[in-house]
Description:
There is one protein chain. The protein is an alpha/beta fold. The chain has one domain (about 5-135): Rossmann fold, CATH 3.40.50. Helix content is about 45%, strand content about 10%. It is built from seven helices and four strands. The chain has helices at about 5-15, 30-35, 45-60, 75, 80-85, 110-120, 130-140; strands at about 20, 40-45, 65-70, 90-95. A four-stranded parallel beta sheet has the order 2-1-3-4, with helices on both faces. Strand 1 (about 20), helix 2 (about 30-35) and strand 2 (about 40-45) form a beta-alpha-beta unit. Helix 1 (about 5-15) packs across helix 2 (about 30-35) and helix 3 packs parallel to helix 5.
Amino acid sequence: MQVTEAVAAALADLGADTVFGVVGSGNFHVTNALRARGARFIAARHECGAASMADGWARISGRPGVLSLHQGPGLTNALTALTEAAKSRTPLLVLAADVSAVAVRSSFRIDVAAIAAAIGAVSARLHSPGAAARGISTSAAASPPRWPRS
Length: 150
């Protein structure tokens, strides 16, 4: 099982059935894995719009929002809405790829942990299927209200 499949399986097990985002090469596989598990994907034209939709959906539905973004600029484009969600304590799970630490000249390489900390959020790197399942479970347990179990 790949990490993307483990993420999709863990989210499906929690009842996550709606995902917002903008698809790029960095989140293509996880987005497809979520769709294969029955999640509805709602595409936006801009990452900030997608993050705002996930934030609003979470507030209205009472369930954690799920957001799928491309790495680097895809994540930074969403920062205004992510900051609002974090400051409002909206339960929101953001899925964004990362690039190798040695790719220091890549425009896709950013310090995700520092950005998350700066806006009051928490980041986790999911390097293996087991880590992905644990990371999703930990995130879900820490973010009330809970997903209803399917």
